[in-house]
Specification:
Glutathione S-transferase Yfyf (Class Pi), Chain A, domain 2; 2 domains; four-stranded mixed sheet; globular; Glutaredoxin
Length: 202
């Protein structure tokens, strides 16, 4: 049994792990972590996620404790033998697109959201625009990669799972329309109809 620790159930980071658990068919229980006054998380949870971030998982079967979504997706793929190729070349292909999300799209989208929420209307908006420009560049990269491919690496993988939840909120959070990226839009539509993805929204 997997203990799935989560905070905001609808956030992209939570959805990534929820989708992965549904795709792999693993049994799990959801455990919600409530931050305390001052933004501190419970001391017991810090032993699971030292940075006090969610999601995180604890695998009762193996004793593994895993935080950071990229690591969680890789762990669950290794555990089940699903959604991550075994050949070195194909595996590297999936991991590099996973890292694009981990190192670029995810952090930039989070920062953009933070600055939009903190904007008092008096700033020049240059920081937000730089972040939107970075997201736009990533969308262009994904658009090229998806030309002639159903999924990022041909077969559906943890790279698709990691990147999809951000595209679902792209217009609301970054004011970028998927309609401007036909391949990316088609890819997002395909993934959105998968039963595991639909399940992750509940």
């Amino acid at each position: 049994m997997i203990d799935f620790y989560r905070m905001h159930s609808s956030s992209p980071n939570m959805r990534k792990v929820a989708i992965m658990l549904a795709e792999t068919g693993l049994s799990y229980t959801s455990k919600y972590v409530e931050k305390q006054e001052g933004g501190q998380c419970p001391e017991a949870y810090q032993t699971i996620s030292p940075n006090c971030t969610a999601p995180a998982i604890v695998d009762d079967e193996t004793g593994a404790v895993v935080f950071e979504t990229g690591a969680i997706l890789c762990y669950l793929a290794e555990k089940t033998g699903k959604l991550l190729p075994t050949s070195l070349r194909e595996r590297a292909d999936v991991l590099k697109w996973l890292m694009l999300e981990v190192a670029n799209i995810g952090p930039v989208m989070v920062e953009l959201h933070h600055h939009m929420m903190m904007d008092d209307g008096e700033g020049d908006g240059s920081r937000q625009q730089r972040q939107r420009d970075r997201i736009t560049r990533c969308c262009m990269i994904l658009e090229r990669q998806l030309a002639g491919r159903e999924y990022l690496c041909g077969e559906y993988s943890i790279a698709d799972i990691a990147l999809y939840p951000w595209t679902a909120i792209l217009e609301d959070m970054a004011e970028i329309s998927l309609k401007d990226y036909p391949n990316l839009n088609r890819w997002a539509s395909t993934i959105s109809s998968r039963p595991a993805v639909l399940l992750s929204t509940k």
